[in-house]
Amino acid sequence: MPSLLKHQGAVLGVCLLFVVHCAGCKQSGKNDLRPSPAPSGTEIVIAAVGDIMMPASIQEAAALNDYNYDFLFDGIAGDLSSDIVFANLETPVDQKSSPAGYPRFNARPGLLSALKKAGVGVVSVANNHALDAGPRGLRRTLDNIEAAGLRFTGAGRTRAEAERPAFLSANEVTVAFLAYTYSTNVGLPKKKKGMPAVNILRRDSNEELMRAADHVRKARHSADLVVVSLHWSDEYRVNVTPWQRRAAAELMEAGADVILGHHPHVLQPVEPYTARDGRKCVIAFSLGNFLSSQNYGISDRNRSHARARRGDGIILTIHARREKGKTSIIGVEFLPIWALREKYRKTSFYHPVSIAREMGRLASKEKRTNEEDRLLALLGYRQKVIRDQLTMKPGILPR
């Protein structure tokens, strides 16, 4: 049985104590909590990452590599090896439109194959950039996602397809994925048949929240676990809003087990939630960025600047066990990542790296340059920021 906490290098893990207690765990060493061996049952591991964006700097580097995006994920190689991996795809992938950065993103299909190779299996397209390439671009994006062997949720070529969950199974456990966004930057043509659709859940909309809750209840009938992605809140906001708490609570009471938040582009808390029916749930209010350049200009000299939070991210990993016909969450951990700037030929780009692995690589060098020393200091500082932010909630145990 896999350990509840990762044990490689300086990987940071967290364990939800309410889950650990109900699973009957034992402590085998300092800060080393492991689930007690179960007499029967199967386990599934679900990982999730934050926003995948395509700024101009990344597009330029990809163009120099014939739009092979594989190199962007070298820094997290092996870290997305869970049974199911989810990501928020915040860019169209339309081969008939030119590659573009902010404010209207568009990538080449090679991005999707790179995500597949990195371990991603399902993506949300319910975000404000879903229609950056227009309705036809969204339809081609969905086609390209499927052609790459990925699944999508949150949008569809029809309204019915958009509202249909993506069902993925592993180890005899079926997981339903649903996704919603507060809005899109480019709207769909109104009252025009045959247009694709994006699932909308606007702030303070009781009607849309009730509809989303109904989708969750229906998905619950066909799944062991339900995961809901919500593109919500305000950009760069660290604190959780009352609407986020209300929406998350109502969706979990409707049957969701995991809430994955996106759009703030900074980390927000990860918290436990116990539903009235006794289910142990998890809310990640914002997973931060996964692929972006929004922490541009940050170095060890200005490492506490507010913009540095846009480079912080995590790979959230959720462990669940199916036993006697019931599937329950038994543990949660996170791996801190950072958007690292690297030089590539005549340009530079940002890509996600495991902070622990990159620090280990730098620390193992017999001789380091001044630049490497500054990077090591920066990474150590950002790792502490992430640890402090995500372990403030009572019931979260850092390793």
Explain the overall architecture.
With 399 residues, the chain is an alpha/beta fold. It has one domain (14-398): Metallo-dependent phosphatases (Purple Acid Phosphatase, chain A, domain 2, 4-Layer Sandwich), CATH 3.60.21. The chain contains 9 helices and 20 strands. The strands form 5 sheets. Strands 4, 5, 6, 7, 16, 17, 18 and 19 form an 8-stranded mixed sheet that branches. The protein has a 6-stranded mixed sheet with strand order 9-10-12-13-15-14, with helices on one face. Strands 1-20 form a two-stranded antiparallel ribbon. The longest helix is centred in the C-terminal third of the chain and has 21 residues, at 370-390. The radius of gyration is 20 Å and the shape is globular.
